[in-house]
TrEMBL record:
One of its GO terms (molecular function) is oxidoreductase activity. It comes from Cereibacter sphaeroides. The lineage of its organism: Bacteria, Pseudomonadati, Pseudomonadota, Alphaproteobacteria, Rhodobacterales. It comes from the Bacteria. Pfam families: FAD_binding_9 (PF08021), SIP (PF04954). Coiled coil: none annotated. This is Siderophore-interacting protein. InterPro entries: FAD-bd_FR_type, FNR_nucleotide-bd, Riboflavin_synthase-like_b-brl, SIP_FAD-bd, SIP_fam, SIP_rossman_dom. Belongs to the SIP oxidoreductase family.
Length: 348
């Protein structure tokens, strides 16, 4: 069913084999985002909308539903990439072609206007940009586009086939993913909290950037704002901005627990939380770990008012282990658990 305010995009895959639906189900099912539909179809539900793949008399039909043109564009690209990865000879025929040469609908040019330190180990960068409404609705994250130094900026554009064309070679943009820590789309600003792990171009940029600098942003995407009545949140420093934003956006009657692993006391931050949520800081220096803390939590009842959700974000190896563990337990239902890899430890 299409609700008021939702946008739709329809596509056809005239020569698509039935195995494509199974491929889509396997890819998104690994993240608990896919379910089977009658007749061999697949429904994929993500933070920014939904995609259905339905077998037709000749091939397959695709429908995308989203709440903004930016989200519609992102999901359109995801479908095209998925189809091409399955069979490079297949392409989707969309009912609404895009105009080549324009900026992608999910792209904005932004300006740095302020910089501050919300706590030890972090820099907060405030950006201003036009039309930030979609960034406040769906998705926790965006891609920060940093132009190469000493060159004229080349921003992404849309090809005649409706795909994003990214500048390459010496014009390539550094494009890390960051959490939108806070946002005011009416005033036209957003804050990004950058964890200074001591490595990488973005850390250097954050330390050196001054107000007036121009960057690009693409989004929103990746992860949804939780809306559960009872939530359990867990993560390390890289997840701190996301956990803080979720907690500060939660209704005042929300219940649950949140645990954040940091190096020590000086890395804790002030976070406004509902009275029914217990925030626990874990200190790596004391040998405390997320896995041990998660084993001690009291699991909320399956019929908790407003639903329940377990949300974990940490290093990739640990995230993979925890995702498998909670699937094996079977104590949480489909769609009640989110386990995300926010970084990769290259030393393991």
């Amino acid at each position: 069913m299409i609700r008021a305010g939702e946008l739709t995009l329809n596509g056809r895959l005239p020569d698509a084999p039935g195995a494509l639906a199974a491929h889509v189900g396997a890819v998104y099912g690994a993240h608990d985002m896919a379910e089977s539909l009658p007749g061999g179809g697949i429904l994929v539900t993500v933070a920014t909308g939904a995609i259905s793949f339905l077998p037709a008399e000749a091939g397959m039909e695709v429908r995308i539903i989203a709440v903004s043109e930016a989200d519609l564009f992102v999901l359109r690209e995801a479908v095209s990439s998925l189809v091409e990865a399955f069979d490079a000879g297949l392409s989707v025929i969309w009912d609404r072609p895009l105009v080549g040469g324009a900026y992608p609908p999910n792209f904005r040019i932004a300006q740095v206007v302020a910089k501050s330190r919300p706590g030890a180990g972090f820099l907060r960068i405030r950006l201003t940009a036009a039309h930030l409404g979609p960034f406040a609705v769906n998705g926790l994250h965006l891609r920060l586009l940093l132009p190469p130094e000493g060159r004229g900026v080349v921003w992404p554009s849309v090809s005649d086939q409706g795909r994003t064309v990214w500048p390459a070679g010496e014009d390539a943009l550094h494009n890390p993913v960051y959490t939108i820590r806070s946002i005011d789309p009416v005033a036209g600003w957003m804050d990004l909290d950058i964890y200074l792990h001591g490595r990488g171009r973005t850390c250097h940029w954050a330390e050196e950037v001054a107000p007036g600098a121009i960057v690009g942003i693409v989004g929103p995407g990746g992860g949804d704002m939780l809306r559960a009545g009872h939530m359990v949140l867990a993560g390390d420093e890289t997840a701190l901005p996301a956990i803080a934003r979720i907690l500060e956006a939660a209704p005042q009657d929300a219940k649950g627990e949140a645990m954040i692993l940091v190096s020590g006391l000086e890395h804790q931050q002030e976070i406004a939380i509902p009275p029914g949520i217990c925030l626990r800081w874990l200190h790596r220096g004391k040998g405390e770990t997320l896995e041990a803390a998660l084993r001690d939590i009291a699991m909320p009842a399956a019929d908790a008012a407003g639903g329940r959700h377990l949300w974990i974000a940490t290093e990739r190896t640990e995230a993979t282990r925890l995702r498998a563990e909670y699937r094996e337990r079977g104590s949480w239902g489909r769609g009640e658990v989110t386990v995300a890899a926010y970084w990769t430890d290259t030393d393991v």
